[in-house]
Amino acid sequence: MPDADTQEKGFVNYMADKEQRAGRSSPAGMVPEGEKKLHEAVCVLLVELCERFTFFGIVCNMILFCTARLGYPSHQAAMVNMCFVGTSTLTPVLVGWLAEYLVGRTKLVCICMFLHFLGTALLPVVSFPFEDVHIDRRHILLTLPKREQKIVFYFALLTASLGIGGIRAIVCPLSAYSLEDCGPKELLSFFNWFHWLVNLNSAVVFVSISYIQQSVARNLGFLIPFVSGLMAMITIHMVRGEMIYKPKTGKRHSLLTTFGVIFSALKTCCVRHRYLSTAVPSWLDHAKENHGGHYSETQVEGTKSLARLFPLFTFQILYRTCIMQIPSGYYLQTMNSNLHFGGFVLPVAAMNVISIVPLLILVPILECINSWLFSSKDTGHSPTIYIGHLSAALSVMAAGFSEIHRKRFPQVEQTLSEELLLVSSMPCFHLAPQYILLGVAEALVTPSCSLLSFWLVPERMRGISMHFLALFNGAGCFMGALIVQTLILLQMSPSPGSWFPHLLHEGKLERFFFFLASLMMVNTLGFWAIAHRYHNILMKKSFDLKCLTFQ
């Protein structure tokens, strides 16, 4: 402990001296380097929070809007929500590639700002009650047929997700936070508090916007995400010269290079296996120039370090599918439960706050635990990941038992967004355990997984590694939609007795949750079997870092 404190104090003193020297060397009238970096970090964080505010504002009541306004069945509304989240997760990878190779960062950020503005502006158009605005007693202002309304809705979601991807990839990438010189302790602390801020922001959205959309101005609720997106774009415009992140040249390893190494190795490996056998330490070594490939030693070794993380990414797919039950399956359960509390009708999305509270509480506790862990010899964080996976599996299992419990209560009438629904009289707070368990899972898994993805690869590969993590997280969102669609196709329709019914009291939604929980338990056992690899790699790299520090 004293050695760790001495190193930390020495690092703080070194950084303070460095900033003072930078300030003294700055010409008159120039902003010191340290103050400039702090200003940039605050601006990036502000834009990030505004973008997340917009994103969660769109997601929080999309199912209620699709079922009440557009007339979608429950399973289709859940799939739309999951696909939008998945698209918003994948678009940063696509936009980052476009900015690097085809368009250019400054031009592309302007295009993405326009798309973000267009998408968030069209959503209020879709939700606006034109049929309630009359020119006179016989004529209404405008009639927007359902088909055109759905087309505009999908176009708005697509353009908004592309705009979200541009802001995340160009303005707010992790590289903009200058994490290159951070050790594992500082990185984990950053990821913990970053996700803490994002979830605090989402808690505000779920309480405020969901109430306005559901109870106060149901047709104009999408205006709030529009205003938030407008705030983000104004912030970008004010400081665009500082906030458009420009990566360092000469040290990057592109996404295309990574895929090229993999395909070249597979092609060469197949040819060599068919005609002549050449022993190499790894199948990726077939892509090296000295083994008949087309890529340098540095490029192949970087891809090999990334390939070690593919099992970790793969096990994240089903975990992300479980997390996506909050805005889909869990939302439908809450919507079909009794939301009355002391004469007040709770917003459906407000139940999401119950899953956020454990994360807000656990992050400070985990910070204290991590300080002790990094001061000792144990620096592995794979245990927290499979504990989080187990918590996610238990959450989905609890959702299945809650669904059985919910259907035992008599039905009552409840008005949501001016629509009269028959729901269970069970208080919605009976669903709290499944939300809490999923919140615990997020607190344990997401920061630790981000740390492993960022720290266990060379510096030039870190951006690519985070892109692959985003790809697999997006795949988990689409996997949830695919599972629901497959179940509907196997049962021919969302008829009574189906695993994802339109009317929950007539179906067997609990079987869907039990099926997903069984898959997640297998997923947890599979990750537990390989978790020691990342534990050992992280310990070795931390030990090497300490040796370099003492030298």
Provide the β-strand percentage band.
under 5%
Largest sheet report: 2 strands, antiparallel
How far the N terminus sits from the C terminus, by CA atoms, comes to 20 Å
The quaternary structure here is single chain
Radius of gyration: 25 Å
* Count of helix runs: 18
The strands making up the biggest β-sheet line up spatially as 1-2
Rounded mean pLDDT is: 77
Helix content: over 70%
Structural class: mainly alpha
Describe this structure in words.
With 551 residues, this protein is mostly helical. It is 70% helix and 3% strand. Residues 1-29 and 132-136 have low confidence and may be disordered. One of its GO terms (molecular function) is symporter activity. Belongs to the major facilitator superfamily. Proton-dependent oligopeptide transporter (POT/PTR) (TC 2.A.17) family.
Keywords for this structure?
single chain; 551 residues; disordered N terminus; transmembrane helix; POT_fam; symport; mainly alpha
Describe the protein's topology.
Blueprint: H1 2-25, H2 33-59, H3 62-68, H4 74-101, H5 105-127, H6 146-171, H7 184-216, H8 223-238, H9 240-243, H10 255-275, H11 297-307, H12 310-323, H13 329-335, E1 340-341, E2 344-345, H14 352-375, H15 382-407, E3 411-416, E4 419-424, H16 432-455, H17 462-490, H18 509-550
Antiparallel strand pairs: 1-2, 3-4
Helix pairs in contact: 2-6, 2-7, 2-8, 3-4, 4-6, 4-17, 5-6, 5-8, 7-14, 7-16, 10-11, 12-17, 12-18, 14-16, 15-16, 15-18, 16-17
Main location: membrane
GO molecular function: symporter activity
Membrane topology: Multi-pass membrane protein
